[in-house]
Amino acid sequence: MDGVTLKIQSSELSVPIVLDESYRFSLPRDERLTELSAELVINRKKSLLSIRPDIRTPGLATGTRRLGDLRLECHVRWAIEKNELSFAKRTAFKMLGGPCKSKTVSTLYFSDGVIKKAWISASGRKIQLAIGKDGNFYRPPIHDNTWDDDALITLEYINAQM
């Protein structure tokens, strides 16, 4: 990641994007950039880097995610990645309802640490979520409309200091 630079660029405007120590960044909210159809430009080959949205409601405890944030992440991720898929794969995803609305498509979410347990809870209801065998990802029920956007996913890390 050394030397990676990002900018939002159009034919009329270029705005540098600052990466933090974890290589995360926030995009500016600027209507001019939308009006000018500006795009995110990276100084690396497209196949060498992968960008994933990370949408978080302010004020939640470490290891807590809001289901609505994860649903929005899925839609943003799908908007970014769908054009990189083959026509056949893109069509298959569409026929299944898309990765954000189909229980057939399993959308994975990476964690900030190794997960011991994960669960979702809302309105007195609580269920455990599947986690990857290495503990680095989990599968929230983003397609399940019986859970509202304010349902909370709680991640219990192996290293409790996370």
In short:
The chain has 162 residues and is α+β, with helices and mostly antiparallel strands. It has helices spanning 31-35, 67-81, 87-95; strands at residues 6-9, 14-17, 39-42, 64-66, 109-110, 115-122, 125-128, 130-131, 137-139, 152-157.
Overview of the structural elements:
It is a single chain. This protein has helices at 31-35, 67-81, 87-95, and strands at 6-9, 14-17, 39-42, 64-66, 109-110, 115-122, 125-128, 130-131, 137-139, 152-157. With 162 residues, it is of the alpha+beta class. It folds into two domains: 6-48, no CATH class; 64-157, no CATH class. The strands form three sheets. A four-stranded antiparallel sheet has the order 4-10-6-7. The protein has a three-stranded antiparallel sheet with strand order 2-1-3, with no helix packed on it. The radius of gyration is 18 Å and the shape is globular. The mean pLDDT is 89.
Can you give keywords for this protein?
18% helix; 25% strand; four-stranded antiparallel β-sheet; 162 residues; alpha+beta; three-stranded antiparallel β-sheet
